[in-house]
Amino acid sequence: MSRAEQREQTRRTLLRESRRLFTAKGYGAVGLSQIVNAAGVTKGALYHHFDGKAALFRAVLAQVQEEVGRRVAATADAEPDLWDQLVAGCHAFLTASADPDVQRIMLIDAPAVLGWNEWRALDEAASARHLSDALTHLIEAGVIARQPVAPLVRLLSGAMNEAALWLATSADPGDLADTKAALTRMLESLRG
Amino acid sequence: MSRAEQREQTRRTLLRESRRLFTAKGYGAVGLSQIVNAAGVTKGALYHHFDGKAALFRAVLAQVQEEVGRRVAATADAEPDLWDQLVAGCHAFLTASADPDVQRIMLIDAPAVLGWNEWRALDEAASARHLSDALTHLIEAGVIARQPVAPLVRLLSGAMNEAALWLATSADPGDLADTKAALTRMLESLRG
DNA sequence: CCTTTCGCATACCGTCAGTACGCGAAAGCT
DNA sequence: AGCTTTCGCGTACTGACGGTATGCGAAAGG
């Protein structure tokens, strides 16, 4: 195996195993020794690829955010109508957030580990950007009233994040439908 | 000084200093040695009063939540009309969340330190309960449509938490007014 | 075939949360 | 008052953690 291949494989294994452990136990409860044991390497390898525990977490977070962003964008783009794209994207975000990786890594640990400011910047670049773009286009198209977009994005993004976490612990499968209905009603209020 | 007085004073000093440090640096970046130094005691005293670092944080969080709950309830109760109570309470929550203690301790660190489940239970008992009660009363009174309350509470609670954090880093003072306006529009959609 | 590169292992360090135990002063008891 | 018990807290220690310095051995380059 060539050196480049070996390097890539080690890096991918570290990302995979750390993501698994972070998801299962949370950032604080996972030691570097557990990660390198699971990956079959040593701390030397880890520090050769990443600047430390937080940097490793950052790389894992980037993966998760990229996956969520792709899923949301794909679902939204399937709708021809601009308004339907917004609704479909929001529903897709709720669905994607059912993934335990998303919940623990992206919604719970990330703000505390990276600080809220950095988390917000990454969230903006990944998923919230789609929401921001959609709302801007809808305003340009005259579908919803002209108003500041930034506060709306934060309100809606926060609502969806929190609802997603709540749905994770919910026993009643009807809760997802109820939440989507309530969220849709909130969105509809923008069209009024 | 009597033993009871001494005990009480040590406990209060520990709570005060740890709250100050947690707010300034965040839970993870504060060591127990810093806390006991600031309080003028030793780790023996800390472990005599609390079961550990997480338990100390829990006690601090309870303080913060209680303060926020009181402020929100007081503002809401000043309104005679049931609907105005809801709006006033939500606005009061946004205002109260401008406090750095609330942001760092209650909104950022608490979910990661205690886990989201415990955080949610405490949040429910403290501040979200008021929101839940208000919505239930409004449904009983026929002011808003009959619908599941729990998803609404999570959506609105999450929206306000996130908006509060965003407002904290906002430079434009008009953002608060814009956010309150957007939030009010969301609430109005319930009356439709 | 010799040299350089570099991916990674080994061994170590400072700091942290948490624990075991002892002291000394206040509180109860006769 | 004196004697004992209680208990608030200090002291001294431990294991585990994140992080660093350094060395080795195989692949790449000439």
From TrEMBL, chains A, B:
GO terms for molecular function: DNA-binding transcription factor activity; transcription cis-regulatory region binding. Gene3D superfamilies: Tetracycline Repressor, domain 2. Residues 31-50 bind DNA. It holds the Pfam family TetR_C_41. Residues 8-68 form the HTH tetR-type domain. InterPro entries: Homeodomain-like_sf, HTH-type_TetR-like_transc_reg, HTH_TetR, Rv0078-like_C. Keywords: DNA-binding, Transcription, Transcription regulation. PANTHER family: HTH-TYPE TRANSCRIPTIONAL REGULATOR BETI, HTH-TYPE TRANSCRIPTIONAL REGULATOR RUTR. This is TetR family transcriptional regulator. It comes from Streptosporangium carneum. The lineage of its organism: Bacteria, Bacillati, Actinomycetota, Actinomycetes, Streptosporangiales.
